[in-house]
Amino acid sequence: MSDRKPDWYTRLKSGPFEEPIFDMKMQSAVELRSRSVKSAETNGKRRRAGAWAGGATAAALLALCALLFVPALGDPFRMAAGGGGGASEGGPAMTEVYVSAHLHVGMTEDQVKQAFGKPTEGMSVRRDFAASHVEDRTDIGTWTAVEAWRYDYEVRAGYEVQSDLGTDAGADKEGVRRGDIASQLVVIWKDGLVERAYYWYRDENGLAQAQYGPQMTSPDLPPSQAVSPEDNQTPDSPENPPEQPPEASPEESQVTTPSLPAANVGVRATGRSASGTFEIRPKKDGDERISLLGAPSCYGMETDLYFWGDYELYFRDAAGHETLVRELAGLEIVQRTDAVIQFLKYEWPGDKELFLFIPRYTDCHGLEFYAFGVDTKTGETSSFSFEQVVTTIDENETESTSRGESPYWTTSTAVKPVLEDGKLIVEGGRGAGQDGAIRYTFEPDWAKQRMNLLNREQIP
Amino acid sequence: MAHDYLKYVSDLQANSLQSLMQVHGQEVWNYAFLLTKNHHLADDIAQDVFLQVYLHIDSFRGQSSVRTWLFSITRNIAFNYKKSAFFRKAMLLDYIVPGAGAKSAEDQYMSRAYTDNIWELVLKLPAKYREVLILDARYEMPLAEIAVLLRLSIGTVKSRLHRARGKLKTYLEEADRHVGP
Q: How many beta carbons lie within 10 A of that of residue A113, not counting itself?
């Protein structure tokens, strides 16, 4: 190809629009969203819904929050991002409102850093118990190891923070009471997730404490030393937090938070063929992210695992030779557990096997899926695209159709694709306000690695 | 490059995010628009891009320029949007109806606001040609960088670019004929 650029290239040097569109208003919206990322997650709008369905609503809510909490939000974020610990002029460095809005049990370290910045200090303590000792997840006093992050806000110049994880969960309560420290936040970790947190600050009545997560014994108190609610004269007093776990709601006590699998290693999905095995793995040197879904939504439950990144599909034949079949960039996987996803398998006429990979297990409308195949005689693999027919109506109301290809297709959540007479029958997803769905009939062209669309049928 | 230091950064400060948005915000928005041809989608995608940058700055390793990295995120987010439930809901109809009889008010507004009417023709190009053309013509991105961004071989990039130029040339000639001497 000639390197000489066409003359009309100069017309494309600017534009497409004269006026800047990504203006200060949009930039401010991003900044607000970055500050409220946890809130967005809680509302199930973390990535797309926040922009898609909730764009205007979220912006309005954020603007309202900004109006209500500008004094509270502005400084806390700045201080937290800086790691806390310093003094600041004017306004509190952190507020209970901000902590309540941005901290919750089950957050990952990254999420806490995003909301509060780097901790002032990471703390850990280990305890020796008898060999028969069994940890009670709900009771810190039984843990053989406790890890915590401490954030100090507005420390008086020259004051040395007193901290011992074995006492008051590592907080310098006296320092806060005297005003040497404006406030302190201590986050307790268990299996890489927030187990509970304490926030000490001063209000008009003196030392105040907010507690997030199970309200249990402090790490310094073994279970036998716990004070029963009856013994505690003022169980709700900030200075005398309830030492004995109060009655947790049944739902809360039943919740088990799954641990997150390691990112960038392992196999995410597999399909076993007569002539080898398909495996979908995180791309080498990739940047796979794994987190909890965080909030119930069309995509699943809040405790579901959310995988995101670039993946590669390999086929390993019987002799152990591996072939890269396809790359799946920016793939999203949502599953209840970290178990390896099994491809759906279809025996195809002519010594062929077709595999469907469905990355997510549920949706309100439809589930996208990818199709792969293998010739069991030759071991040759296929990665199918789907023929797509798009009908357009132009300005003169003339209807025309064009055919394209899609790397994946969408199936109903309830009725999975079936094989009939050498054809793949797919019931499409159902959107809100639609009457029925479309049933698609595909015939695979193994040579071209394409699913040819034979028929579309409207169904109730 | 003003933001190359970002490869050493694990937490993005608010002022750095602001600076990044000021320098690259419009480019990212333009790229999102040229990918999606939708003003509102471009708004959402551009904002999401910088939110992702804020959240995942530690994943930037300086292997590409900041702009290419931003474009890569833009591309991923744009494609993810296309897969989202909302988009599927709209696309399940298999119909794209730009409006009966006449251009929508937004279309009319947008065509007035183009710096040059050539952009209308660019947006008529199929996505795979449009994308490679704007990266080459508008952003003057080296072919090797385009190949990395689009995950294509350089040969494929060249081939697409050649066809994109050919198609746009045809569009321009047709447009000239309609205008007449």
A: 20
